[in-house]
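Consider the tokenized backbone below.
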């Protein structure tokens, strides 16, 4: 009796597995057909990407060499343009100028998160969306030769040799103490009677 129950269980198990295998075989054939069509689509997309990459190989603008072998290209005039085009890793990004209180030139696009900060010694590229510094110590050819960055903030600064306070031609020089309390100093200097 035990053998009969065991044989029935084995027969039922083999029947269900055979049915499951038969049901899966027709499903495998369309998947293979889908794989072939998807590989064709991927090949076509790869060709289009290769064509796009070939177009991205020739970026426009001035090359800025960064540390770790990275480089970026900047199109536009930092002294007067309000929007610069930055070519980074095969793509062009339009970055509008942002006002700063530090004197650095900053170009930031909130949609992409790219943030280009240019100070007299170098430029840095950040991705604010990811919280990463993408490129650091970027310099163009003139900066590598010892010049300062071509920034608007640098162009607005006074030359080193120029004095910060200049008296107008023919105008009197006002002393700070006289300007604040001219009558009080004269009265306090006079003796009391």
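A designed sequence for it:
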């Amino acid at each position: 009796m035990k053998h009969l129950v065991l044989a029935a269980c084995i027969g039922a198990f083999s029947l269900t597995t055979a049915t499951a295998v038969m049901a899966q075989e027709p499903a495998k054939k369309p998947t293979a057909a889908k794989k072939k069509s998807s590989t064709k689509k991927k090949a076509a997309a790869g060709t289009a990407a290769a064509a796009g990459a070939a177009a991205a190989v020739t970026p426009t603008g001035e090359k800025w060499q960064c540390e770790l072998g990275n480089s970026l290209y900047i199109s536009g005039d930092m002294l007067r343009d309000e929007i610069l085009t930055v070519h980074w890793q095969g793509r062009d990004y339009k970055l509008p100028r942002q006002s700063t209180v530090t004197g650095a030139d900053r170009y930031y696009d909130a949609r992409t998160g790219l943030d280009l900060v240019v100070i007299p010694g170098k430029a840095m590229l950040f991705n604010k969306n990811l919280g990463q510094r993408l490129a650091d110590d970027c310099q163009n050819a003139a900066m590598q030769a010892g010049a300062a960055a071509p920034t608007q903030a640098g162009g607005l600064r006074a030359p080193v040799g120029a004095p910060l306070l200049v008296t107008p031609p023919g105008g009197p020089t006002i002393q700070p103490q006289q300007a604040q309390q001219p009558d009080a100093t004269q009265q306090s200097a006079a003796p009391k009677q």
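The beta strands are 62-65, 71-75, 83-88, 91-98, 105-108, 114-119, 122-127, 132-138.
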